[in-house]
């Protein structure tokens, strides 16, 4: 490098970039340093960071699958509650009342112990195996029974709440919007799709933000059915070293907080980005 | 012209048939066929009868202004014409097509009948231009460029091309209503319905909307207008229909209805609004 002074500048940035990459595998801080400054218990947390990190990955994955299932079931349910008629609406409404009236832990025990989970799990696993065969080995951990049961429980519970968010948002769109859409020749479904839903979805962001936070935090309940998410893994750790309960749980709380905070900020941005100009969102 | 008489509707259908058979052979006759024919419309909400046998004919190029006290059924009548409200009985014909026919697709017929609302109802999440292109693209299936070109020419027609990129919340009431008119015009309607288009606007803003409407009158657009703007009615209308309690009380050219009404009820109504 010294021989080619003209390239010095690019060389420097390149070297700092390559320094940054192995930061996780070869940490700057040694366990000894952590132990020296923060004590043995923090060094214990530090030693097991990768174990906790994978727990965090499971937590994030479970949040995403649950919210996705919640949206896919909750949005149509909201549409049916707002616009549907007769039996479909009565069914959706009763199912929602039932789900919202049952504690999440109870729902999860149903999906894990009562529901024949293989019916759902087997197709998912063969689908993932199919993906594996096509794309080669992918870094998706095996979907276990507990993960599937937790997704179903959190997902359907979330659907019951999301349906209310969307129902409210749809019903809040002025009736005249539907009439105007119909008056230029749209049918009901086209009007909902092109006029009502885009407005309702924008207005659902604050409610969805709330729901996101709730689902993320409630993934910790999957601890009860033995899913190795963040809280379960934290628990495993402080049972191993009982003096480190405070350190482990503070670390886990911080991760939960960072996740909720950063996602809420992102959704704030999304909300502002898609706000209708001239209207207060 | 249209006092309710049970035999009247039947008699008119008879004469319509006669005319149709003639119109089939002579194009000149077809010209005289009314564009919009309303026959004996009845509509009630619960126990309240809103329309009680309304009949009316509007020729191509006519500007028919509906006036009457609130609750007289003007708006309901208008909404029945494009089936935003379904009638209980009676018929509406647009040219040869029966709008109220059981096999008529309301979505298809609504493209031929433009509507402008009292509360404007622009799509709030779309710009002025997008408000117009939405129908062209999703209903008419036009390409993006084609729809955009059409939208811009309609915006130009109502004098708002410069505001094409503005959202409804960034426009004044009068501008919004002009976009509302442009949105309806873009679908190439045979007839335009205006449901109190200036009632939600300040007098100052009403004028710019009335100017656009007068311009449409000059272009020969067939219009049915519910309005309290008597200046527009006097200046632009070819006919005035006075409704009360769901019935047509009187129909005639503006000068006659305003200055020399045959009915005492009509005279009383115009007397009362003059005193306002």
Automatic annotation (TrEMBL), chain A:
Family: Belongs to the binding-protein-dependent transport system permease family.
Main subcellular location: membrane
Its membrane topology: Multi-pass membrane protein
InterPro entries documented for this protein: AA_ABC_transptr_permease_3TM (IPR010065), ArtM/GltK/GlnP/TcyL/YhdX-like (IPR043429), MetI-like (IPR000515), MetI-like_sf (IPR035906)
The entry's keywords: Amino-acid transport, Cell membrane, Membrane, Transmembrane, Transmembrane helix, Transport
Residue runs in coiled coils: none
Spans traversing the lipid bilayer: 51-76, 97-121, 238-259
Origin: domain of life: Archaea
Protein name (Swiss-Prot/TrEMBL): Amino acid ABC transporter permease
ABC transmembrane type-1 domain residues: 56-260
Compartment(s) where it occurs, according to its Swiss-Prot or TrEMBL record: Cell membrane
Lineage: Archaea, Methanobacteriati, Methanobacteriota, Stenosarchaea group, Halobacteria
Pfam family, one: BPD_transp_1
């Amino acid at each position: 490098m010294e021989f080619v002074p003209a390239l010095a500048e690019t060389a420097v940035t390149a070297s700092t970039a390559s320094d940054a990459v192995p930061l996780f595998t070869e940490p700057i801080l040694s366990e000894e340093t952590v132990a020296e400054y923060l004590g043995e218990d923090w060094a214990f947390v530090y030693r097991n960071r990768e174990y906790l990190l994978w727990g965090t990955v499971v937590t994030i994955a479970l949040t995403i699958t649950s919210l996705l299932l919640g949206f896919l079931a909750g949005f149509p349910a909201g549409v049916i509650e707002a616009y549907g008629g007769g039996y479909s609406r009565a069914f959706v409404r009763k199912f929602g009342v039932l789900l919202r009236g049952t504690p999440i832990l109870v729902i999860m025990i149903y999906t894990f112990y009562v529901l024949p989970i293989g019916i759902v799990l087997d197709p998912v696993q063969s689908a993932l195996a199919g993906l594996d065969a096509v794309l080669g080995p992918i870094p998706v951990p095996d979907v276990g029974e507990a993960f599937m049961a937790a997704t179903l429980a959190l997902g359907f519970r979330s659907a019951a709440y999301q349906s209310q968010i969307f129902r409210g948002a749809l019903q809040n769109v002025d009736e005249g919007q539907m009439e105007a859409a119909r008056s230029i020749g749209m049918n009901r479904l086209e009007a909902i799709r092109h006029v009502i839903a885009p407005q309702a979805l924008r207005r659902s962001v604050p409610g969805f933000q709330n729901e996101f936070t709730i689902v993320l935090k409630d993934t910790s309940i999957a601890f009860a059915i033995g899913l190795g998410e963040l809280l379960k893994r934290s628990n495993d750790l402080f049972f191993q070293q009982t003096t480190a309960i405070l350190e482990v749980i503070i670390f886990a709380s911080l991760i939960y907080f960072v996740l909720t905070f950063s996602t809420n900020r992102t959704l704030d941005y999304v909300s502002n980005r898609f706000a209708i100009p001239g209207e207060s969102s | 012209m249209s006092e309710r008489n049970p035999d009247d509707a039947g008699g008119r259908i008879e004469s319509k048939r006669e005319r149709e058979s003639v119109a089939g052979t002579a194009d000149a006759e077809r010209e005289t066929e009314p564009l919009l024919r309303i026959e004996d419309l009845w509509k009630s909400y619960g126990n309240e009868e809103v329309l009680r046998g309304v009949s009316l004919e509007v020729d191509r190029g006519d500007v028919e202004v509906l006036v009457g006290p609130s609750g007289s059924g003007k708006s309901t009548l208008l909404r029945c014409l494009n089936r935003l409200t379904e009638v209980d009985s009676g018929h509406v014909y647009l040219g040869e097509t029966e709008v109220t026919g059981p096999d008529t697709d309301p979505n298809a017929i609504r493209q031929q009948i433009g509507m402008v609302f009292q509360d404007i109802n622009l799509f709030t999440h779309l710009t002025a231009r997008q408000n117009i292109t939405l129908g062209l693209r999703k209903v008419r299936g036009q390409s993006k460029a084609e729809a955009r070109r059409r939208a811009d020419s309609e915006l130009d027609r109502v004098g708002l091309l410069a505001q094409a990129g503005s959202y409804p919340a960034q426009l004044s009431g009068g501008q919004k209503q002009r976009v509302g008119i442009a949105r309806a015009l873009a679908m190439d309607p045979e007839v335009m319905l205006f449901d109190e288009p200036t009632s939600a606007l300040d007098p100052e803003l009403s004028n710019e909307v009335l100017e656009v409407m007068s311009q449409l009158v000059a272009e020969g657009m067939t219009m049915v207008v519910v309005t309290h703007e008597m200046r527009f009615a006097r200046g632009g209308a070819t006919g005035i229909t006075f409704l009360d309690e769901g019935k047509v009380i009187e129909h005639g050219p503006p000068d006659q209805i305003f200055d020399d009404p045959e009915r005492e009820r009509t005279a009383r109504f115009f007397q009362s609004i003059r005193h306002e």
